[in-house]
Amino acid sequence: MTVKLGYLLPTREQIMLGRPEVAPMLALAEQAEALGFDSIWVGDSITARPRHEPLTLLAAVAARTRRVQLGTAVLLPALRNPVVLAHQLATLDQIAEGRLILGIGAATDAPSIRDEFTACGVPFEARGTRMMEAVRLCRALWAGGPVDWDGRWTLKGQQVGPLPHSPGGPPIWIGGTVPATLRRVARELDGWFPSSLDAAGFAAKWPEFQAAAATEGRDPAAITGAVYLTMSIDDDAAAATANVHSFLRSYYGDRADISSKLGPCYGGGVEGAVAFLRGFIKAGASHLMLRFCGAPEKQMQMLAGVRGQLPG
């Protein structure tokens, strides 16, 4: 199994610090590519956790890189008009020359996110089915030729141009762990991208996704298992752990013991970081997306120095 490492740009963190300038983030993307990272990721939130608009920023990253894949971690399609979204994503995939990965999610049920949906004029209920209809409509438009559609949106012989660089559109991964996610991946999506499971949880769930895909007549090997991980790598393990707690409190505005349950975290030295990542690889994950708690330049360099200890 070939393993890929990704890096999440700190868009939310920079807004929180009052430093919205994009040039430093583009430099981080270039550094990640130079150090051998395989992908660059950008999060999505409009009002719940404000940050840079992901597709616009990824277009800039695409123009400054040549090799790395580019992804959303994760985009909320339910907040967008899918015809406009299909056009945006097709253009972005052309800029990136086929390097785009579309990570999507239905959105967590939280007061701030419900308020975000209200602010965007989108009903929060049935957001999962709204998301999947949007995905199917995007794919219909990416197939080329006029599209007729009679659903939440109505199209009569409409089409978009350009089409994506990738035939049929970019691969689509989804976050989440509920049964509906399993069904969606098995039937029609290209990857599973949870953010809330530790290695043991991933190992328990991943065979279910593979079996479900086989039941649907799909090749399980064609579905990517990916994970979203938060890390603080430092020779001082105690300082690294404290940094994770401080980061989570600041980012989520909650106690670290609660926030840390939102996703798997690691704080410690570089050798421990390798063991942490190996645990997910053993569980079946082949694409590891990393969010660093501050000092990303140093941590990327430390991890790049031991990349040879990981498969891929």
Structure, described:
The chain has helices at 11-16, 23-34, 54-64, 82-95, 111-119, 127-142, 179-188, 199-215, 237-252, 256-259, 270-283, 296-304, and strands at residues 4-8, 39-42, 69-72, 100-104, 147-150, 154-158, 172-174, 191-192, 224-233, 265-268, 287-292. By secondary structure, the chain is α/β, with parallel strands linked by helices. Helix 7 links the parallel strand 7 and strand 8 (191-192). The protein is globular and about 60 Å long.
Helix amount: 40-55%
- Helix count from the secondary structure assignment: 12
CATH architecture: Alpha-Beta Barrel
| Count of β-strands | 11
Highest-level CATH class? Alpha Beta
Largest sheet: 8 strands, parallel, barrel
What labels would you give this structure?
TIM Barrel; two-stranded antiparallel ribbon; 312 residues; 12 helices; alpha/beta; 8-stranded parallel beta barrel
Give a brief outline of the structure.
The protein contains twelve helices and eleven strands. It is of the alpha/beta class.
List the helices and strands and how they pair.
Blueprint: E1 4-8, H1 11-16, H2 23-34, E2 39-42, H3 54-64, E3 69-72, H4 82-95, E4 100-104, H5 111-119, H6 127-142, E5 147-150, E6 154-158, E7 172-174, H7 179-188, E8 191-192, H8 199-215, E9 224-233, H9 237-252, H10 256-259, E10 265-268, H11 270-283, E11 287-292, H12 296-304
Helix pairs in contact: 3-4, 4-6, 7-8, 8-11
